[in-house]
Specification:
The chain has 198 residues and is an alpha/beta fold. The chain contains seven helices and six strands. It has a six-stranded mixed beta sheet with strand order 1-2-3-4-5-6, covered by helices on one side. Strand 4, helix 6 and strand 5 form a beta-alpha-beta unit. The termini are far apart. It comes from Neogobius melanostomus (round goby). This is Distal membrane arm assembly complex 2 like.
């Protein structure tokens, strides 16, 4: 009887875990929705900061040493006063549909995408296609993002100011030597730090 009871409990726990996954995916999609009226009302940097913090990322504004991670403690002030300088999206739920928030950022120098389960090639292509970011991003990390392939990394060649790129634990990269060579050909000053294993 105890064996049967344990089996029933295990099945119930498994069912609860599986049934929660679609809910979290739906909720994360809601967090990534773009509100154009909000962008107009508070400016692109504030709206992007709200999006990022809602999704579990952190932001650093120009003139600040520390990252902000509390949505309710974002600084307030005149429209356009605070400019995002760095994004640390470690273990956040940011996804492609939210990347439209980045369009108006003009001072973003650093972006870290570490252990982001929704980051894929289209996200890196989107970052690389934004003209403001092409002229501002200097440092980038892509770590433990299982959906990123050579295609997404090669797309970063459009980031003209990129000086340092750290790549680690990216199982989707199949031809890392060719990918890195293509990046370095396009961006001769780029320092690529690889930690991809064999």
């Amino acid at each position: 009887m105890r064996v049967l009871s344990r089996a029933v409990k295990a099945a119930a726990v498994s069912y609860r875990v599986q049934s929660c996954r679609p809910f979290w995916g739906w909720l994360n999609a809601v967090f990534n929705r773009v509100d154009h009226e909000r962008i107009k009302a508070v400016g692109p940097d504030r709206a992007a900061a709200e999006w990022l913090l809602r999704c579990g990322a952190r932001v650093r504004f120009q003139g600040f040493e520390k990252f902000h991670l509390d949505y309710n403690a974002l600084p307030t002030g005149p429209l356009g006063r605070y400019k995002i300088e760095a994004i640390d999206a470690t273990e956040s739920c940011i996804m492609h549909k939210g990347f439209e928030h980045l369009d108006g950022l003009k001072h973003l120098e650093e972006i870290k995408l570490n252990k982001c389960i929704y980051i894929e090639d289209s996200c890196l292509e989107r970052i690389s296609s934004i003209e403001n970011l092409q002229n501002s991003i200097c440092l980038m990390e892509v770590v433990s993002c299982g959906n990123v392939t050579d295609k997404g990394i090669i797309a970063l060649h459009k980031l003209k100011k990129l000086q340092y790129l750290f790549l680690s634990d990216l199982p989707g990269l199949e031809d890392k030597e060719t990918t890195v060579q293509r990046l370095k050909t396009a961006l001769p000053k780029l320092d690529v730090d690889l930690d991809l294993g064999n």
